[in-house]
Write a structure and sequence with these properties.
- With about 230 residues, the chain is an alpha/beta fold.
- The chain has 2 domains: about 130 residues, Response regulator (Rossmann fold); about 80 residues, no CATH class.
- Helices cover about 45% and strands about 25% of the residues.
- It contains 9 helices and 10 strands.
- The chain has a 5-stranded parallel β-sheet, sandwiched between helices.
- Helix 2 runs parallel beside helix 3.
- The longest helix has 17 residues.
Length: about 230
Amino acid sequence: MARILVIDDEPDVRMATVLSLQRGGHAITEAESGMTAMRILRQSRNEPFDLIVCDVMMPGMTGHEVCQLVRLDPDMQKIPFIFLSAKRESDERMEGMEYGADDYLGKPFALEELLIRVNSVMAKHKATTAGHTTPDPLAQLTLAQCIDLIVRHNLSGKLTALLKGSIQGVIFFEGGHAVHAKVHDKVSEAAVREIHSAQLLMYSFEAYEVSDQITMAMDISRIIKKH
């Protein structure tokens, strides 16, 4: 039995998907939007889901954006991800895979096919876990695009950037607003400008739940004390 998060804004499709996977012996958690899904994922950090099945076209945060945020978070980035979409063209499928998805299933789909795809993706993931490589965030979206995603959806969390020379920079966001930043000997706006202009090697974004704001405050406090 696997723990699967199903994300779809259409109640009928979501219900059909859930019932199909439950008949396959899996434990299902539902989310009606991308924002709700991210909240659920943050709350289950200590016990990550085995798979995410997500609609692409949703109001607010799209399935593509959910996948990007999952792939950017060190605690979630290895969770297998399947897209569901009414768009069946090969270009759409390739775009979904480029966002970091493991499979793409066009709507309408046979429930038996969904179950086969789910079991196949999880079996493949289990067989390759030891040598599993996650998508490079820089190949998915630029740092500027990531920050735009954070701002548009009023997200809170910590963006960590590794710059050339093994220099690490951090930017803390609260409700989509940058509230603190530090890199090397620079803080606040100067640090943000430095991170934007420096050669970026890699980065990650760890979203915080509202209840984790005290954690963010403590992280900021530690960084300030080191300065």
